[in-house]
C-alpha cells in the first residue's frame, strides 16, 4: 500500500497529487513509528507483519545477534532503497553492541 501511494505522489493532476500526499502522510506515520521503536528500543511492534524486519523464528541464543532478525526484502517499500533497508535492519545490532560495551566498561 505504501509503495502504491508513493508511486502516485507525482501525479499530473494537482488535486490528485495533494490528496495522495495527505494520504501518504497518514499511512506512513504508523510505519515510521514502528521503525523508530526498532531503532530506539530494539523491538518490532508490528502486529500485522507489514514491516521489512522480522524476528527469526528459528533463532537459537548461541547464534549471533545478527541471526535473530531477518530482512524481508519483498516488504521493503519502493521509497526505501534496499541498501538503506539493510542498514535499518542492522542498526539496532550496532546500538546493542554499544550498550553492551558501555555496561561492561562500568
Description:
- With 106 residues, the chain is mainly alpha-helical.
- It has one domain.
- 55% of the residues lie in helices and 6% in strands.
- It is built from three helices and two strands, in the order H-H-E-E-H.
- It has helices at 2-7, 14-41, 82-105, and strands spanning 53-55, 69-71.
- The protein has a two-stranded antiparallel ribbon.
- Helix 2 packs parallel to helix 3 (82-105).
- The protein starts with a helix and ends with a helix.
- 7% of the residues are buried.
- The model has no long low-confidence stretch (mean pLDDT 80).
Query: Rounded to an integer, what's the Rg over CA atoms?
Result: 17 Å
Strand line-up in the sheet with most strands: 1-2
Count of beta strands: 2
What best-fitting shape do the alpha-carbon axes yield?
elongated
Question: How helix-rich are the residues, as a percent range?
Answer: 40-55%
Q: Which range does the strand content fall in?
A: 5-15%
Largest sheet: 2 strands, antiparallel
Summarize model confidence as the mean pLDDT: 80
Q: How large is the count of helical segments?
A: 3
Alpha-carbon distance between the two ends:
46 Å
Structural class: mainly alpha
Number of domains: 1
| N-to-C series of helices and strands | HHEEH
Low-confidence stretches: none
Sum this structure up briefly:
The protein is mainly alpha-helical and 106 residues long. It is built from 3 helices and 2 strands.
Amino acid at each position: 500500500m505504501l509503495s502504491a501511494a508513493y508511486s502516485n505522489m507525482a501525479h499530473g493532476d494537482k488535486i490528485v497529487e495533494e490528496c495522495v500526499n495527505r494520504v501518504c502522510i497518514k499511512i506512513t506515520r504508523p510505519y515510521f513509528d514502528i521503525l523508530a521503536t526498532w531503532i530506539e528500543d530494539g523491538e518490532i511492534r508490528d502486529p500485522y507483519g507489514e514491516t521489512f524486519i522480522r524476528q527469526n523464528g528459528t533463532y537459537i541464543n548461541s547464534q549471533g545477534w545478527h541471526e535473530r532478525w531477518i530482512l524481508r526484502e519483498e516488504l521493503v517499500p519502493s521509497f526505501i532503497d534496499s541498501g538503506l533497508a539493510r542498514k535499518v535492519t542492522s542498526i539496532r545490532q550496532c546500538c546493542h553492541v554499544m550498550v553492551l560495551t558501555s555496561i561492561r566498561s562500568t
